[in-house]
C-alpha cells in the first residue's frame, strides 16, 4: 500500500501563494493557499534538507526555531522528495506533473537521454522551456508584489534558477549570515517585498557527512541563530515563514543495493534514472507487454519487502505527481523503486560512482523525507 497523505494536509505548493495573498489581500491565480494575517512585506525561507524528523531529533540545537513549532506546523513536500521537483513546485504552486520536473535524473524523451534536473541546463541537455509553468514571482508582479531571491553566488545565473525563479531579482550572499542580512535590508526598505531566502548548506553537509554529523549540527545552530536574529528584529508589519524542500535519512554503505546485481532486474531496462532512494527505470521502447509485466514482477519479488515498486500508470493513478500533463507523462519512469526501508539503490555500471559516497539521502515517500516544517514569525506568528 502506498502511503497517502490526508487531503487536509498542507502542501509545500501552498506556502508561497499564502505569503503572496497576505501581501495583496487577494488569492493567487495559481496554487492552493492557507490563511495568513496581512503583512507589509514577507520573507519565505526554504532550508534545503530539513525535515520535521531531523529538526525534532536535534531540537536542542535549534531552540528558537523549534519553540514556535507545534505538531501540526508542517507541510508535505512533493513526490519525489527531491530538490528540483520540490523547489519547482514551491516556486510555481504547481505539482511536478504540471511543471515537468519529475525527479533528479529524468528522461528527455525526444533525445533519449537522462538529464540532471539541477545542472542539465548548463550541459545543454534541457531547454529553457522544460519547466512548463509561470512562476509565482512572475504572476504576483501583476498584483504589485516586488520579488527577490536571495541565495548563494554560485546559483545566481544557473539554468535551474532561471527556470524556477523567473520574475525574482537575484541577490547573492556567500554565507548564511550574509543572506539573512540581505533579506533584512529588503524587508525594511521595500514595501510589498516578497523575499525568497534559500539555505543549501544543511543538505550539502548531510550528503557529504550525514545529518547526524557534528558539522551538520553546527550548520543547524548557525541557521537557528540567523533565524533568531531576523525573527527578533523583523521590520514592523513584516512576516516570515520557514520551511524546507525535503527531509534526510542517513544510509551507510553497508545498506547500498545494486540494481544490476541480478541481470533479470535490468534486462529490458534502457535507462536507470531517478536517485538512490527513488530509482526511475525506463524500459526499452520495444519491450512487449508480457516482458514488461515479467520485469515488474521480478522487481516486486526481489525488492517488494523494502521498497514500493510502482508502475508509471499506478503512480499517476495514485495522484503522487498531481495532475500529469500529456507532455510530462513520458518523463516519468516506467517503473519507480521508492525505498521504504533504510536502503539506497545504485547501478555499479555507472561511469561516475561518486554518488555512492553520499550518506544523507532523500527522494522517497517516508515521513522522514516528505514531511517538512512550517514555522511562522513576525506578522505571521501564531497568537
Automatic annotation (TrEMBL):
Q: Which PANTHER family match?
A: BIS(5'-ADENOSYL)-TRIPHOSPHATASE, ECTONUCLEOTIDE PYROPHOSPHATASE/PHOSPHODIESTERASE
| Superkingdom as given in the UniProt entry | Bacteria
Q: Which organism is it from?
A: Agromyces protaetiae
For this chain, one GO molecular function annotation is: hydrolase activity
* UniProt-recorded name of the protein: Alkaline phosphatase family protein
Amino acid at each position: 500500500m502506498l502511503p497517502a497523505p490526508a487531503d487536509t494536509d498542507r502542501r509545500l505548493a501552498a506556502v508561497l501563494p499564502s505569503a503572496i495573498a497576505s501581501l495583496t489581500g487577494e488569492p493567487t491565480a495559481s496554487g492552493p493557499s492557507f490563511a495568513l494575517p496581512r503583512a507589509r512585506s514577507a520573507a519565505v525561507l526554504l532550508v534545503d534538507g530539513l525535515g520535521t524528523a531531523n529538526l525534532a531529533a536535534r531540537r536542542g540545537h535549534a531552540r528558537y526555531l523549534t519553540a514556535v513549532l507545534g505538531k501540526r506546523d508542517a507541510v508535505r513536500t512533493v513526490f519525489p522528495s527531491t530538490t528540483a521537483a520540490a523547489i519547482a513546485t514551491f516556486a510555481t504552486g504547481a505539482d511536478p506533473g504540471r511543471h515537468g520536473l519529475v525527479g533528479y535524473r529524468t528522461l528527455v524523451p525526444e533525445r533519449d537521454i537522462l538529464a540532471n534536473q539541477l545542472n542539465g541546463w548548463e550541459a545543454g541537455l534541457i531547454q529553457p522551456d522544460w519547466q512548463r509553468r509561470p512562476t509565482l514571482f512572475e504572476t504576483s508582479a501583476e498584483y504589485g508584489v516586488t520579488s527577490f531571491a536571495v541565495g548563494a553566488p554560485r546559483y545566481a545565473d544557473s539554468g535551474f534558477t532561471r527556470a524556477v525563479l523567473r520574475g525574482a531579482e537575484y541577490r547573492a550572499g556567500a554565507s548564511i549570515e550574509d543572506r539573512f542580512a540581505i533579506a533584512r535590508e529588503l524587508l525594511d526598505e521595500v514595501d510589498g517585498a516578497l523575499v525568497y531566502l534559500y539555505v543549501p548548506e544543511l543538505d550539502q553537509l548531510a550528503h557529504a557527512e550525514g545529518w547526524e554529523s557534528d558539522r551538520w549540527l553546527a550548520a543547524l545552530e548557525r541557521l537557528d541563530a540567523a533565524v533568531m536574529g531576523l525573527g527578533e528584529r523583523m521590520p514592523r508589519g513584516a512576516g516570515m515563514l520557514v520551511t524546507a524542500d525535503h527531509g534526510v535519512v542517513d544510509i551507510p554503505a553497508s545498506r547500498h543495493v545494486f540494481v544490476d546485481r541480478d541481470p533479470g532486474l535490468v534486462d529490458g531496462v534502457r535507462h536507470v534514472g531517478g536517485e538512490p532512494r527513488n530509482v526511475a527505470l525506463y524500459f526499452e521502447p520495444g519491450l512487449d507487454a508480457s516482458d514488461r509485466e515479467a520485469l515488474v514482477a521480478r522487481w516486486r519479488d526481489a525488492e517488494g519487502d523494502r521498497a514500493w515498486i510502482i508502475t508509471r500508470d499506478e503512480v499517476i493513478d495514485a495522484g503522487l505527481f498531481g495532475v500529469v500533463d500529456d507532455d510530462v507523462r513520458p518523463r516519468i519512469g516506467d517503473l519507480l523503486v521508492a525505498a521504504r526501508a533504510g536502503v539506497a539503490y545504485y547501478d555499479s555500471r555507472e561511469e561516475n560512482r561518486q554518488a555512492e559516497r553520499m550518506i544523507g539521502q532523500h527522494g522517497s515517500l517516508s515521513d522522514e523525507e516528505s514531511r517538512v516544517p512550517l514555522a511562522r514569525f513576525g506578522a505571521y506568528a501564531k497568537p
